[in-house]
Structures are given as C-alpha cells and as structure tokens.
Specification:
Function: Binds mRNA; thus facilitating recognition of the initiation point. It is needed to translate mRNA with a short Shine-Dalgarno (SD) purine-rich sequence.
Largest sheet: 5 strands, antiparallel
Number of strands: 30
Protein name: 30S ribosomal protein S1
CATH architecture of the largest domain: Beta Barrel
GO molecular function: mRNA binding; structural constituent of ribosome
Radius of gyration: 59 Å
Family: Belongs to the bacterial ribosomal protein bS1 family.
Distance between the termini: 199 Å
Shape: rod-shaped
CATH class of the largest domain: Mainly Beta
GO cellular component, one term: cytosolic small ribosomal subunit
Strand content: 35-45%
C-alpha cells in the first residue's frame, strides 16, 4: 500500500515539476477562473495566472465565446512580468495552432475555412481561424469583382497558394475553389448533354464570329455559319444578348469541354428541296448578296445562294469587274445552269436571261442591211464599229474601198467618226460581225457586168484617145482597149481613127471581178464574126470568096 502511495507521490511530484517549468514561447493549457474588465483571468498551472483581452477569443466581427471554467490554450510569452503575472496571449496561441493546422492542409492540398475581414493594397486580408492570410484581388472571383462588400465576414472555403511560416506569409485564393466547383458543375452539365440534343440557352456574349450561349452553368459557341441556312454577315442580325434561344448540341469535346452549338440544324434544310424547286434552265428572281472578283452571289431564297460566274454575266462586257454589271442588294433575273447538291452549289447565269445580241442582230440585220455606227477602234487589220445591242462589227481593210489599197483607205478614218456600212456576214457562234464600207450602194461592177460573160458582144462608148489605145466605158465601168486589139487589120490599129463619144461593138475577152476590169477587144470581135460566117456559109474552098460571104452576112444582118 505504501509502495503505491509512494509511486503516486512520485508521479504527482514529476507532474508538478513539469507544470512548474512550462516553457516560455510555447502553447500551454489553462483554465478561465474569472472574467473582469473585458479580460479573462486564466490559470495556466503552478500558481501562474495571466490576463487575456476578451476580444482575443472572438472571430472578426463576432462576440467572444468564453465562460468561467472553460479550458483554453494560450501562448506563454513570459513566465512573469513586473506584476508577477504570466504574460499570455490567446491570439498567438491561436496563430500557432492555426499555422500547424494550415501547414497540414497545405501539404494535403485541402481547402481551409476563413473569412475576409479587411481590405489592403492589391487585395484583402483573410482570417483563417487565427492566422491572417492575403487574398490578392485577382483571386477573389472568376471575373473581376467591383464590390467585395457582400463577401466580407462570410465564412467560406479558400485554397492556400503559398505559405512561409518564418515570414508569417500566407497567400490564399477563393477563385480556385470557384473554378473547381464550376468545373464540377460544367462536368455535370456536360454529362447530361449529348450530341444532337436540342436545348434552351441564353445568349451571353456576341462576337464577330458567333455567340456564346449559357446552357445552365456551361457556355457553348454558336458559330455564325450555324445560325441560319442563309448567309449571316454579323450575329447581331439574328441574336441579342439575354435572349433565350433553342439550339442543338453539334459537338462536345470531352477533353477541353468545348461545346459547339447550331440553330439552323433545327430548321428544315432548304437544300433538300433545291433540285426540285430550281430545275435546270429555269429562270428565277434573286437578290445580289455579295460581289467578288470572280462573280456575284445571288440569293434565290433564304439559305440558298448561287454564283453567277463573271463569264456568265454579260454577252458583251468581257473582262469587266462584276461590280460594274450588278450592285449589292440588286434584284436580278438569273437562269439555273447547274446544281451540285453535295457541294451545295448552284451555278447561275445572268446573260442567259437576255437574248444573245448576236442572234438578235443576225435576225434583224440580214446580209446586205445598211448600218450606221461609231468607229470604236482602229487596228492594223480594220475598223471596229459600235452597233446596236452593245456589240461591234468589223470592217476589214479589204472592205474599205474599191479604188484604194486598204492601208491607204484606213488613213481616212478617225476614232469617233460616224460611218455607214453594210452587213456582209454574221457568225453567231464566234460572235463576229463582218461589215463592208465599199459595198455601200451595192457592188457597181457586179451590177454592171451582171449578164456579161466571156465572149459576149457589148457596145461601149469611147471616152478618151491615147497613144497606146482607147479608153471606153460600159455601164459606168471604165476599160482600156490596147492598140493591138483595135483591129484585125494592122493598118487599122490606130487610136486616132476613133473619136470621143463613138459607140463601138467589142467582144468581152475577160471578166475579172477581183481587179474589177473587163477585158475588151475589137479584133477578137472581128475574128469571131469571121469564124461564124465561115461556119454558116461554108469555107473559102467552096469557091465563095470571103468578101462574098461577109457581104452576104452583112446584108442578112441589116
């Protein structure tokens, strides 16, 4: 029995020694023995008492919770001061305790609870249950916060970003927690979505290329090309911020959690009906929506656009920018040339809705029709004349004049001159019109020698006497009979035996329509007459003399 008491005594003694010498600078347990004058008097053992301001037992903005008899932990700063009391601090004890707890949470990457209680430069101060941390402004929320008032004093979770016990620094983030919960919320929302599903969303933001739509905690992008089947220049044409829209989930990227949305997918695709609605070669009214270097886009109906290629815009305006032919928003008639359903392309023609001006010209201007036009261009091979229907005709050098060489005749013309010509040929396929100026008023030579052939006998009038022969005229066409062709008889081959104004019968030896000359001969006529007479009246061998025969022939000719 005595042994036991002895052991107990030793244990008590040991305990009293330990209590006797609590270590300064450590946290010790104590008991509240009185509360007076805003302070708590705490017995920390071995007849050591100290005082702690009541406010040290309160969280920022809260009333202190402390009563006589409560056991508390305090920090022993000094065993005795001048008044013989222990210098103790509840706040420092809480800080030490908090630091231990926070370091563990930091190591385990766990959230800690705290309350924002003050504003400092660049951010806020947060009480983490005894330790004060810094909350940078950028870490308060996912988006910049204009007024942090409602957040003050609220108990809420924080994430520790950095800790340095030696310096007493702690940096925390509220944003990291929000992002995490948003990510969880996103994951939950995305988990409930499936591709092809139709959902309602609210337009949050509009950009050049589309709109962001909130699907209840997660945003999806509605691209401008998926808003409507027709061309949309800017999303604001269709949507406004805050509007609720029905969209279809087109694609969900499981890794990035990006969601692509579409509106047009919930409407009927006008392309399903295009082939039936717009048969080839049918003509429709459309509106020009866009003009490029290579053509113009024409909207046939919302969602169905076709391209009029620059080559199909005009019969006559070649190598011209499409903007010179049509303008944006203009209504035009177009013909459907081709439909490619797979590529969703319609090829349209503008010129096909108007008649080919060369065809029209060919119908209204048969060969020989006289036309008038302005000299548009002069080239080394002829003149280009502007005609009705915005088309040109060409007068080749060889068609300028009967009397002059083409190279000389073209010198008489200047750009802008008004000239008359006749149509000599229209080639619709090659889009070529040949004109002639020299044939104006018909081909005089062709008219004059219409019935004249080689061997014909014609009567001509002598217009001039020259040494080498005589100049004669037939139906306004001049010819020259050389001296040697004036008679069979050499003695009669004298030009001076003729007088101007004499009428002479001659034989046509040649009709040259190229040089527009008649070859004429008196000698040839005489030989031909003799030959004819011989055939009619026998040869000279039969006894009749040539004189007799000619005499008889002449008599019968009278």
């Amino acid at each position: 029995m005595a042994d036991t008491s002895m052991e107990e005594f030793e244990a008590l003694l040991q305990e009293s020694f330990e209590m006797d010498t609590p270590e300064e600078g450590s946290v010790v347990k104590g008991k509240v023995i009185a509360i007076e004058a805003g302070q708590a008097i705490i017995d920390v053992g071995y007849k050591m008492e100290g005082r702690v301001e009541l406010k040290e037992f309160a969280n920022p903005g809260e009333a202190p919770e402390i009563a006589v008899g409560d056991e508390v932990e305090v920090y022993l700063r000094a065993a005795e001061n001048a008044r013989g009391e222990a210098v103790i601090s509840r706040e420092m004890a809480r800080r030490e305790e908090a630091w231990d707890r926070l370091e563990k949470a930091y190591a385990d990457d766990q959230r800690v609870e705290g309350a924002i209680f003050g504003r400092v430069k660049g951010g806020f101060t947060v009480d983490l249950g005894g330790a004060v941390a810094f909350l940078p402004g950028s870490q308060v929320d996912v988006r910049p916060v204009r007024d942090a008032g409602p957040l003050m004093g609220l108990k809420q979770p924080f994430q520790i970003l950095k800790m340095d016990r030696r310096r007493g620094n702690i940096v925390v983030s509220r944003r990291a927690i929000l992002e995490e919960s948003r990510a969880e919320q996103r994951a939950e929302v995305i988990g409930n979505l499936s591709e092809g599903q139709a959902v309602d969303g609210v337009v949050k933001n509009i950009t050049e290329y589309g709109a962001f739509v909130d699907l209840g905690g997660v945003d999806g992008l509605l691209h401008v090309t998926d808003m409507a089947w027709r061309r949309v220049n800017h999303p604001s044409e269709i949507l406004s911020i805050g509007e609720t829209v029905k969209v279809q989930v087109i694609k969900i990227n499981k890794e990035t959690h990006r969601i692509s949305l579409g509106m047009k997918q919930l409407q009927e695709d006008p392309w399903d009906l295009v082939a039936a609605k717009y048969p080839l070669e049918s003509v429709h009214k459309g509106r020009v929506t866009n003009i490029t270097d290579y053509g113009a886009f024409v909207e046939l109906e919302p969602g169905v656009e076709g391209l009029v290629h620059v080559s199909e815009m005009s019969w006559t305006k070649k190598n011209v920018h499409p903007g010179k032919i049509v303008s944006t928003s203009q209504e035009v008639d177009v013909m459907v040339l081709e439909i490619d359903g797979a590529k969703r392309r319609v090829s349209l023609g503008l010129k096909q809705t108007m008649r080919n001006p060369w065809e029209v010209f060919a119908e209204t201007h048969p060969e020989g029709t006289q036309v008038e036009g302005e000299v548009k261009n002069i080239t080394e091979f002829g003149l280009f004349i502007g005609l009705d229907g915005d088309i040109d005709g060409m007068v080749h050098l060889s068609d300028l004049s009967w009397d002059e060489r083409g190279e000389d005749a073209i010198q008489n013309y200047r750009k802008g001159d008004m000239v008359s010509a006749v149509v000599s040929e229209v080639d619709v396929d090659k889009e070529r019109i040949s004109l002639s100026i020299k044939n104006l008023g018909g081909d005089k030579f062709a008219e004059a020698v219409g019935g004249v052939k080689r061997g014909s006998i014609v009567t001509v009038e002598v217009t001039a006497i020259e040494d080498g022969g005589i100049e004669v005229e037939y139906e306004g066409m001049k010819s020259f009979i050389r001296r040697s062709d004036l008679s069979r008889d050499r003695a009669e081959q004298r030009p001076e035996r003729f007088n101007t104004g004499d009428k002479v019968d001659v034989r046509v030896t040649n009709v040259d329509s190229k040089t527009r000359r008649l070859g004429l001969s008196i000698k040839a006529r005489e030989i031909a007459e003799e030959k004819e007479a011989v055939e009619q009246y026998g040869s000279s061998d039969s006894g009749a003399s040539l004189g007799d025969i000619l005499g008889a022939a002449l008599k019968s000719g009278d």
